[in-house]
Write a structure and sequence with these properties.
Largest sheet: 3 strands, antiparallel
Radius of gyration: 26 Å
Strand content: 15-25%
Strand order of the largest sheet: 1-3-2
Distance between the termini: 39 Å
């Protein structure tokens, strides 16, 4: 986006996109309280900052924005990051219930904006059948204390989900029993027809008053109307002689957004307060793909979704017109860091951002690999579609979806032939004093690099590596996953050592191991409370999970 902006108290209906989550205000206050390391750890691991952008006036729901740290990443927040944050909130809610010592009572959500039903009244939901109440024994199961390790395990559960909503909603008991809005047990279960996600009926009613979209997968039910000032204009001009980098051979589409000054309306943060006018310019290639995105942007403008009123992240000024989570290229050159071109995947990303606001193309569907109209369409289990030929070429390199990185099939690496053995000893690791240790030994003889190595025919030297895990339940699970990864030749590879600079040697392959028993993370040792959850995610990123 040309100027990275946010809104302090913008309408959640207008501003909630792929980077916003509705959570209980009490849960957020608990996470954000001084001395709570979970939120800080999440922000550090994900490269995200999480901050509240709107509170319910009487306490209840609040909207939390997940935002990339400047310069770390570009584009929308991934589904995995969003689900990880939801899991973190769920863990906090359980810890609150334990401390309160009472039954988990749900906090009613308060609407942040008016109802946006298409006909102006009623609910989109059919009355569900009454649900049986949990027995005392069932309730007690959800009151078990959650120490840091259990919290980390819950935090990583989202990463093991299949991104297919219909599969995820039926495949996990935890999600089936917990409402992602209030973080408590589901009461009067209501399941959305299109995506299959389930919530408390009262929670979903209130969430739909904020935004008629699934709080988990953001699939839109109905039409969103934002709070963009109603007196603006969108003008389109074309320059056939101006070529954008990466789109040579096509002209340039220049979009001019213009807004006069005015007074904030009731749906804005400060009704009656004046806001200044502004003019913004954005660029698209004058190609079939660019014109298709232009049509979507025009529809988004008509639905008042392109801009909102809030606080600019670039200037810090309040009560100004700001961008609203639909990224624009406001510069011709400079690449993504300068909000310009070349940026090969921009058109696909902005199409996805528009889709999450319920704006989809009526014309042919584009392939995210070749950026052309899909030929011989093939849809993956994660519901993303591509040209069959493009998908074959991608899967020849790595059998994972190019958009969401969900693995489809078995991924085999370039690790040379070697052995993996383990032993258990009574000595404990710092941070796991109640358990013994697992000692892993990797051994590789010297050999000759094969066709899938950097320098085929060149000799590499043998090596022996040792690593340590706690001999507790989670450590045993990680051991099994590491064994799977080793059998798939994913733990090591042949290349250049980061620590010594030597070439043609056996090196670790992005699955971190603890090679020392102490010294902390900086010395590749313990204590490191979040190591087991991190290595589980690294294994998941290579398609190694407990489910496969």
């Amino acid at each position: 986006m040309g100027s990275q902006v946010s809104s302090d108290e913008m309408s959640v209906c207008a501003g909630q996109g792929s980077d916003e989550v509705l959570v209980s205000q009490a849960v957020w206050d608990y996470l954000a309280a001084a001395g709570r390391p979970w939120l800080i750890d999440f922000q550090h691991k994900q490269g995200m900052s999480a901050g509240i952008i709107r509170r319910g006036e009487r306490g209840g729901c609040c909207a939390v924005r997940l935002q990339p740290v400047a310069g770390v990443m570009d584009g929308p927040i991934s589904s995995e990051t969003r689900k990880a944050f939801i899991d973190l909130c769920r863990c906090a809610r359980k810890e609150m219930s334990k401390q309160e010592g009472g039954s988990k009572r749900k906090r009613a959500l308060l609407p942040c904006v008016g109802v946006l039903e298409p006909n102006g009244e009623g609910s989109l939901l059919q009355p569900p059948p009454p649900q049986p109440r949990r027995s005392q024994r069932q309730q007690q199961r959800f009151r078990k204390p959650a120490d840091e390790e259990a919290c980390a395990m819950l935090h990583e559960t989202a990463y093991r989900k299949d991104l297919d909503p219909s599969v995820a909603s039926h495949g996990e008991a935890e999600d089936n029993n917990t409402c992602s809005i209030c973080m408590g047990d589901v009461v009067e279960r209501t399941t959305l027809e299109k995506c299959g996600h389930s919530f408390c009926r009262s929670c979903l009613d209130q969430a739909f008053k904020v935004k008629k979209a699934c709080p988990v997968c953001r699939l839109v039910y109905g039409q969103l109307i934002g709070n963009q000032p109603a007196n603006g204009s969108m003008i389109v001009e074309r320059d056939p002689d101006l070529e954008l980098p990466g789109h040579e051979g096509s002209g340039c589409i220049c979009i001019i957004y213009s807004f006069p000054p005015g007074l904030q309306a009731p749906e804005h943060p400060n009704p009656g307060v004046r806001y200044p006018g502004t003019d913004r310019v954005a660029y698209l290639p004058d190609s079939p793909e660019g014109n298709r995105v232009l049509g979507l942007l025009r529809r988004a403008f008509e639905q008042r979704l392109i801009f909102t009123i809030g606080t600019s992240m670039t200037t810090g000024m309040q009560n100004v017109i700001t961008w609203n989570d639909i990224h624009h290229k406001t510069s011709i050159w400079g690449g993504p860091r300068c909000f310009g071109y070349p940026d090969p995947t921009y058109l696909v990303r902005v199409t996805e951002e528009l889709r999450e606001k319920g704006i989809t193309a009526a014309g042919p569907e584009l392939c995210a690999v070749c950026l052309d109209v899909i030929q011989d369409k093939q849809t993956l289990r994660c519901l993303h579609s591509f040209c069959s030929g493009c998908l074959d070429s991608v899967f020849n390199v790595k059998p994972a979806c190019p958009l969401c990185n969900t693995y489809h099939g078995l991924y085999t690496g370039t690790q040379p032939e070697g052995t993996m053995s383990e032993a258990r000893i009574g000595k404990s690791l710092p941070g796991f004093e109640k358990h013994g240790s697992i000692v892993i030994r990797y051994s590789f003889p010297s050999g000759i690099q094969g066709p899938n190595h950097p320098n085929p025919g060149v000799r590499y030297s043998g090596t022996t590596r040792m690593a340590f895990l706690p001999a507790n339940e989670e450590g045993e699970k990680i051991l099994k996953l590491l064994r799977k990864a080793f059998d798939r030749k994913l733990v090591f590879t042949v290349g250049q050592s980061v620590t010594t600079g030597l070439k043609n040697v056996i090196t670790w392959n992005d699955i971190h191991h603890k090679t020392f028993t102490n010294g902390g993370p900086q010395n590749f040792g313990y204590p490191d409370p979040n190591y087991l959850s991190r290595v589980r995610e690294e294994l998941r990123a290579k398609g190694v999970t407990e489910d496969d």
